[in-house]
Specification:
Layout (H helix, E strand, L loop, with lengths): L3 E5 L10 H9 L2 E4 L16 E4 L2 E2 L2 E2 L3 H13 L4 E5 L9 H10 L4 E4 L4 H8 L13 E5 L13 H6 L3 E5 L5 H10 L7 E6 L7 E6 L3 H7 L6 E5 L6 H4 L11 E4 L3 H13 L3 E4 L3 E5 L4 H8 L6 E4 L2 H13 L12 E4 L2 H9 L13 H7 L9 E7 L5 H8 L3 E12 L4 H8 L3 E4 L2 H11 L9 E4 L2 H9 L6 E2 L5 H13 L3
Parallel strand pairs: 1-6, 1-7, 2-3, 2-6, 8-9, 13-14, 13-20, 16-17, 16-18, 18-19, 20-21, 21-22
Antiparallel strand pairs: 4-5, 9-12, 10-11, 10-12, 15-19
Helix pairs in contact: 2-3, 11-12, 13-14, 16-17
Length: 501
């Protein structure tokens, strides 16, 4: 089995990752990733996977190419399953060939998973087909930034000025004026349509359409810079007619998602559909608790409970994981037990495991569960409440006050997650920060520390319990979800964005 896989992440839209790429990423023990084009895929990595940033960002490069090669070889020698996650396609100006050679020289085989290159993906998302039967029957892809250590430039701009069809230039924004002048001098018409697409396929995408002679000035006037793809040819003039992407109500807004990494994608995807530029800043991590007497006793008495109360999707996942460890399934649960879910997401998780939900409150908080169970005779009834260690005591206290014999079993806890300084800085300057649980509030405050007064983002809370935690932290709440769900958070964001400044 090949220990290392070179996986093309595509140009930025996570939906463009191949099925094989996702399989390898989810199973990897270690992931060496480029920063550009891979950010939104890191949530696919399994908990505990070693994540190594090898990418470039303005003013820094995490690892040199030689260091990347040595890192991959070192991880493979440890016996790990390694994914080298590269933006776009590994072999389109991605230096994938160099990395394979380093691994081959060390005796390791490599699997290569191609990715969608930005040379095609970015123009397509801007409504520009690189070929069109009536306009262009070929396209040429070149780099505008060659290796500065080479003795001479390989790209023959004079020849490209005479080549018909579409010309796609990657990494050329820094030299756009000089490149345009050379192409025009070689015979490309100055009035030929041309376009620049920045952050193609992502929700940060912006594009301009001009002519070869004016593209540099138009792009500069609109503030377009790197990373961008330049398209020169008559196909660029089709952008307006073939545009297929529409701006959502959150277009242009950066929204921070503070949920645990494994869960962040649910909210993030909803926000991206609405046009938001999403920054995932997972401030908590879900950590299963080791089996103790309470957990073992709960599993032994599973068939005795007359009510099962689940207050989160995490609780459902952890309960069924513990049941599976003991070889148990839904048949171990009493057939007449009432199953209580705090909200629709928890109910969906239970339904997916074959368990029908009997009670779901109108308000998706502990108080709502108590209201929904009002009138139900619980006197002397054994009740299981399976949830997080740090959950509020109200629910259990009230159920016991009504006569129920409650087993409160903590299956997991939420622990703080660290984050790069650059992500913290970006979160403080974002348009919105969303909070979906009290634990995210506490750990966000711990992560930000004494920089909390610098927070300029508007704050959106999923519900009153989270809002109380924000108030305790002296963070004003700008919007609270009317329905305490992820969709409710999205509706609150759209509502706020629609309000006049």
């Amino acid at each position: 089995m090949n220990r290392v896989a070179l996986v093309g992440a595509g140009p930025g839209d996570p939906g463009l990752l191949t099925v094989r790429g996702r399989e390898l990423l989810e199973a990897a023990d270690a992931v060496v990733y480029d920063r550009l084009g891979t950010e939104r895929l890191m949530g696919l990595c399994r908990p505990g996977a070693r994540l190594i940033d090898a990418g470039k960002s303005p003013g820094r490069q995490a690892l040199t190419q030689d260091e990347i090669g040595r890192t991959l070889v070192g991880l493979a020698r440890e016996g790990l399953r390694v994914v080298r996650l590269k933006g776009g396609d590994p072999f389109v100006f991605g230096r994938g060939g160099e990395e394979i050679m380093a691994l081959a020289d060390a005796g390791f085989g490599v699997e290569v998973v191609p990715g969608v290159t930005s040379a095609i993906g970015a123009p397509a998302y801007a409504g520009i087909p690189v070929t069109h039967r009536a306009v262009a029957t070929s396209f040429t892809v070149v780099t505008g930034h060659e290796d500065p250590t080479k003795p001479g430039e390989q790209t023959d701009w004079e020849a490209l000025g005479r080549v018909p069809g579409t010309l796609v230039i990657l990494m050329g924004m820094g030299r756009l004026r000089a490149i345009s002048e050379r192409l025009i001098a070689a015979g490309r018409p100055a009035d030929q349509p041309a376009a620049a697409v920045q952050w193609g396929t992502t929700h940060r995408q912006r594009e301009v359409v001009a002519t070869l002679g004016t593209l540099h000035d138009v792009a500069a006037a609109h503030g377009l810079g790197s990373p961008a793809v330049v398209v020169i040819g008559d196909v660029a003039g089709l952008a307006g007619r073939l545009a297929w992407r529409t701006a959502g109500p959150l277009a242009g807004r950066r929204v921070v998602v503070t949920r645990a990494r494994a869960q962040a994608s649910d909210l993030s995807e909803r926000l991206r559909i609405l046009g938001a530029d999403v920054l995932e800043l997972p401030v908590i991590r879900i950590e299963p608790l080791p089996a103790d007497d309470a957990i073992r006793g709960m599993l032994a008495r599973l068939g005795d409970y007359r009510a099962l109360v689940l207050t989160s999707v995490n609780g459902v996942e952890q309960l069924f994981a513990r049941m599976a460890e003991r070889g148990l399934d839904t048949r171990a649960i009493h057939p007449d037990a009432r199953v209580v879910a705090i909200g629709p997401a928890t109910a969906a998780a239970l339904n997916a495991r074959g368990l029908r939900v009997d009670v779901m409150p109108e308000r998706f908080v502990a108080e709502g569960i108590l209201d929904a169970l009002r009138g139900v005779d619980l006197d002397g009834a054994p009740v299981l409440v399976a949830r997080a260690r740090e959950a509020r005591g109200l629910l259990v206290d009230e159920l016991r006050a009504r006569g129920a014999r409650v087993d409160e079993v903590a299956l997991y806890r939420t622990v703080p997650e660290d984050a790069p300084d650059a992500d913290v800085e970006a979160a403080l300057r974002a348009d919105y920060v969303t909070f979906t649980a009290s634990s995210t509030v506490r750990n966000f405050c711990a992560l930000v520390g004494d920089r909390l007064p610098e927070l300029r983002a508007r704050v959106v809370s999923i519900g009153p319990v989270t809002s109380r935690a924000l108030a305790d932290a002296h963070i004003p709440v700008d919007q609270e979800a009317g329905v305490f769900t992820l969709d409710g958070v999205c509706e609150a964001l759209v509502r706020d964005a629609d309000e006049p400044a």
